[in-house]
Target: Protein SYS1 homolog
Amino acid sequence: MFYGTLVWDPWLIVVQIVCLQCLYYLTLGFFLSILVGTRVSRMSLVYFFDYATLTISTVTGWCVIASFMLSALAGAGYLLLLIERAKKCLDFSATVYIVHLFICIFYGGWPSSITWWVVNGTGIAVMALLGEYLCIRRELKEIPITRLRSNV
Model:
């Protein structure tokens, strides 16, 4: 893809943010259902948005932490597919986690657990840095040029 003059398209940005957020939560739900759903009797939104579930004192808490980290890894792949530019990865990663912070505040109050902050801070770093790495690798690929040259 050729990147010429950058045209500011707010609708594209909003759609990318919504798609990235939805994919993040779908992936988080998938990993939570696999890792945590087998350990608890009933899944709920508590595991998504309540800071108290991210704890290192229980095995279920470690499974929730693992789900968040795996979702951050998948988020880097989503950045590669949806955003395609290394210089935008940090912006979109930060947006995903800021929206998540606001939803968590609305759902369960201000996250007062240090574990929640460490997990989400690590998640944003993993998502942004791995996303940038993947996008840079794609941007630096050689452009295949085929020449149709007749013998003169």
User: Anything to note?
Assistant: The chain has one domain: 27-138. Helices lie at 10-35, 46-49, 59-82, 89-108, 114-139.
